[in-house]
Amino acid sequence: MSGLYAHQQKQLPFLETAIAKLPVDSLRVITLPAPVCLPENLLRGGADPRALLIACGDDGVAGLGVGMELRATGSDRFERIQDLADDAFRSINRLDSPKVHAPPPRFYGGFAFDEGAADDELWEAFGDALFVMPRWLYGCSEGQAWLRLTLPKGDFGDAAPSEYADYLDRLANNEPPQSAASYQRRETESPEKYRERINLLREDIKTGRYEKVVAARRLEVDLEAPVDDLVPLHALRERFPACTRFAFRIDLRTFVGATPERLVRRQGQHVETVALAGTVPHGKREELIASKKDAWEHRLVVDAIHDSLRDAVELSADSGVVVRELANVLHLETPIEGELRDDAHILSLVESLHPTPAVGGVPRKEALKHIQASEAPRGWYASPIGSFDADGEGEFSVALRCGIVEETRATAYAGGGIVQDSKADLEYQESELKFEAFLGALGTEKPRKKPSSKN
Predict the structure, then answer these.
(1) Of 115, 124, 206, 261, which is the active-site residue?
(2) Residue 327 — pLDDT band, cuts 50, 70, 90?
(3) Containing H/E element for 385?
(4) Of 115, 121, 153, 212, which residue is the catalytic one?
(5) Where are the alpha helices (DSSP H) in 328-391?
(6) Cα distances (angstroms) measured from residue 172 to each of 38, 99, 122, 155, 168
(7) Predicted confidence (pLDDT) at residue 173 exceeds the cutoff of 90
(8) How far is residue 40 CA from its own chain's centroid?
(9) Taking the mean position of all CA atoms in its chain, how far away is CA 13?
(10) Whose C-alpha in 86, 246, 311, 386 is 20 to 30 A from the C-alpha of 107?
(11) Active-site annotation holds for 446
């Protein structure tokens, strides 16, 4: 008898007993021990219409299906999600298998970059705010793992035992995903038009209208063959192991990426965030340290984070600026932390911080108006993504180095902070460097055919 089969047979009686024991008119959460595996394994096959992943290194969570879903639109979307979640948490009946070590139930999801930023065909399924307690959630942390079933009211759980067996088999499958596909990119904005946009923005900055605005680009990508979302996730894990990789799948469309930027984490009364701004290619560390332009751009982010959190958090002295090294770029980074003055839900901290000048601008409202008027809708690009529990604890990242994958099409996003000393050519090159993280995870770019000349 294999170890996996023995594990399954040992836990099935508990699962069946728990389903029968918990009242069917409640939201039921049942947690079982599970083998330690790579979280991505649960997403194999790509056939499940709803799936998610949030992971860093070998640890993280992966979910399938929907046990409970929360949606909100409009200017009060942060408060609305918190209210809906509070109601849901109060309705939970929970039963954990003996000796299982698992955190309390959480909702996982994110927000659009701005109110209405998901109001186009590409993003409409994601909406202004979407959070899910998956039907099945696998978690792995510090050498321990668990598998959690969430049954909505009225679901008798008849299919759960066979689903449990199937998902254990998936988790045990460590075969690498299919090969990446070749792709060809299509510019939605020409390089010349982007540079012109940057130069016009610099003129506005010189007049004092803004101090900084983040200008983003969007690329369309044609794939030679359909790509399973495990392909970019596997590639991103290999190349950016210290970044938070994420995936949110709705039907055939998956928002996927690997971000270096934490927005905020709340654990107990302790709060952590980070200022990340200023970018150069590898090999230019000294130039980054000496750059007045990057130092100014970074300082704007640090100051804005302090201003956003000052009322809610007793901030510690900053530990100073360090250079954050990724596989393809270097950033300036300042860790920021402190203790809550009073109880505050992490969603209220997220609302206060987002968007930082690292993805929005200064002044915030004016920069957002410029972004809305000059760019295609960002959807969930540069938005807060993460999770939270009933105590208002959790962690959110900024969705960067990312894009949407759907069958033979992908859409990529990248941007950069524009200040008075920015140079359009360098900003274009920086955005190309940032695109490379996501595009490189898809496969290899196909060279464009040169037009034939006629004599």
Answers:
(1) 261
(2) confident
(3) strand 384-389
(4) 212
(5) 346-353, 364-374
(6) 9, 21, 34, 28, 6
(7) no
(8) 15
(9) 36
(10) 311
(11) no
